[in-house]
Write a structure and sequence with these properties.
single chain; alpha/beta; eight-stranded parallel β-sheet; 10 helices; globular
């Protein structure tokens, strides 16, 4: 870790307050303990380090861009459990899995080719670092529950086949669950007491997959819910929510994003 990666105390305080607010919201729903992935895309590594340090000691952070994730993973402690949640290009899957030993989960797998390349990448990493041979790379199958053309993900009816392929043909991968990104309009338009139909669809897909593959429901997690709709997602049974702007604030334009900030004490 570079010596000049300082943590601005004022920034750390604000992040801690935001993080505590989100945790309290999750806990107030009394729906178990869904995993919180702090989505740090386009935010500096200093912010991640602040939340990884006491008092939160947080482990789970999510990134959307492969090069940004690789750069941050090389700077930050190996104790972080990285989630890749962005759109996957097939030709980027193998290096992604091969270069980041503490990549904990890839949540956007939507083709057998991508799964196969991630499996090959993890195998390559294990050959260089034998201590990871018994640590499979977790993956989620992304399902397009909204039917939006611009969204990645398999059709709900195709989810079982991809899940089966991962379980049968990708020994370096562990099928962790199903992921969806709900339509923003649906999230904003859900009436109080009603359920977001995208989340209901993912729940139904899990029921279908677990039935056809003879799995128990708790063996296949649901990753759904972001800053604008995580409470609704948890009420629908989400096992994991991915929250960015509510914790880290508004993101800069991609061209203006910095991997690290040389923030000195007292600066804002």
């Amino acid at each position: 870790m570079p010596e000049d990666m300082q943590i601005n105390p004022q920034r750390a305080k604000q992040l801690s307050e935001n993080f505590s607010y989100v945790l309290s919201k999750i806990q107030s729903l009394n729906k178990g303990s869904p995993r919180l992935v702090a989505v740090s895309k386009l935010k500096p590594a200093n912010d991640i380090l602040a939340l990884h340090h006491p008092p939160h000691n947080w482990l789970y952070f999510g990134e959307n861009y492969q090069q940004e994730l690789l750069s941050k993973s090389q700077l930050l402690p190996k104790s972080i459990r990285w989630h890749f949640i962005g759109a996957l290009q097939t030709n980027k899957c193998r290096p992604l899995a091969a270069q980041i030993p503490n990549l904990w989960c890839v949540e956007s797998v939507d083709t057998t080719k991508k799964a196969d390349e991630l499996d090959k990448g993890r195998r390559s990493l294990c050959e260089k670092a034998p201590e990871y041979r018994d640590v499979p790379l977790r993956v989620c199958v992304q399902v397009n529950t909204s039917g939006e053309e611009q969204k990645s993900g398999v059709e709900p009816s195709d989810a079982t086949a991809l899940c089966q392929h991962i379980r049968q043909h990708c020994p370096q991968l562990k099928l962790q669950g199903l992921m969806t990104i709900g339509a923003i309009a649906r999230s904003q338009g859900v009436a109080e007491g009603k359920e977001n139909e995208d989340f209901v669809t993912l729940r139904d897909v899990r029921r279908q997959v677990t039935s056809e593959l003879a799995l128990l429901e708790h063996e296949l997690e649901l990753s759904m819910g972001m800053s604008d709709d995580f409470e609704s997602a948890i009420r629908c049974g989400s096992d994991e929510v991915r929250i960015g702007s509510t914790i880290f604030g508004e993101r800069p334009a991609k061209k203006d994003a910095q991997i690290t900030e040389n923030a000195k004490e007292g600066e804002t």
